[in-house]
Amino acid sequence: MIRINEGYLSLTPAFFFTKIGEEIAAFEKRHPGKRLLHLGVGDVTKPLAPVVIEAMHRAVSEQGDAASFHGYLPETGTDFLKEAIVAYYARRNVTLSMDEVFISSGAADDLGAILHLFSPENRVLLIEPAYPAYADANQMDGRKLIRLPGTPENGFLPLPSPDLQTELVYLCSPNNPTGAAYTRGQLQQWVDWAKARQALILFDAAYEAFIADADVPHSILELPGAETCAIEISSLSKTAGFTGMRLGYTVVPKDLRVNGVSLNDLWRRDRCTRTNGVSYIMQRAGEAALSEEGQRQNRVNIDCYRENGRILSDALRSEGLWFTGGRNAPYLWLMCPDGMSGWAFFSRLLEQAQIVGTPGEGFGPSGAGYLRLSCFASRGDTEEGARRLMKAL
Ligand code: PLP
């Protein structure tokens, strides 16, 4: 008899975004013609940089000519894109070798797939609230989850303590959904803890391009010792607006060993088995996005999202609401007024201000009582949203 993986049956039904959609549909039915401002969405809205579009056009033409056509490419990515990533890290004084970089179809893919390397007996520490895929991917494998809650007291940036018992830990900085980001000193505490405990950090750097503060590291590999206890998983989704393109990368340092076994060797073996890599056109697009000119053009979009963060932060501050984020990440995480639940405040903002946020309950138990706003709406909608927010509060 076929036996399914029962880990899938332990998952919470994926009703969260469905429920938001149903609430919006019901509101629109009750109030036809009222314009909603979508300030909760975690997807980029600005088009790709011109240099990326040009690179894709060139790559498409190459694929139409026998002399320049590419078939299968190396499973772990092309040298030209790896070189671009190595150079990107070198600008942050992180020295990588090409064989430490693995090209992927995005961070979501590798955040789950990397778990192939670890037995289900390992425990996993999640700092919550968290990007929901961390918990789900581990529950699918039947791994035990340990939850370390973010709170206003720790600024949603909990630190390790010697009694924390786990083998794997996900860290996401800057964080989705809280927008909070670890400083160099705080992140070093995690690295030192992981080394002492022989734990492994799975570091999600998807939002590194938004960092504004000089003492917030873009990569965990900037910190001494991280090359022996951390894997970094990142993406061009938010760095270069690639959410609809699908391109990311994972860095597995050569010095990373578990019981003498090289995780870099294991991951290479895994990739050469389970994927045939990413398309040539996408990799040329990624190379262009990470070039000096690509980064200059991407920066224009990121600065625009960042300005939205400033507008929303000013509005929340003027109303005396407690929040994190809005500076090093495209999210603001606010404490709902009057002890309301995230869902209750979501409904109040929808009814009174026609603003759609994201209830904190969608990001784990410690998200209850919070709401996430994002900076990806247009400038006009963000300004209008800030005005409506101030009026409704
Ligand atoms: N990690 C975090 C924290 C995210 O918020 C997201 C997407 O929103 C991802 C990873 C997924 O990124 P990608 O588009 O590269 O799969």
Give the biggest beta sheet: 7 strands, mixed
Helix content percent band: 25-40%
Integer-rounded radius of gyration:
21 Å
Using the coordinates shown, work out and report the CATH topology of the largest domain.
Aspartate Aminotransferase, domain 2
Name of the level-1 CATH class of the largest domain: Alpha Beta
Q: Can you walk me through this structure?
A:
This protein is of the alpha/beta class and 393 residues long. It contains eleven helices and 15 strands. The strands form four sheets. The chain has a seven-stranded mixed sheet, sandwiched between helices. The protein starts with 15 loop residues before the first helix and ends with a helix. The structure holds pyridoxal-5'-phosphate. The site of pyridoxal-5'-phosphate has 13 residues, from α4.
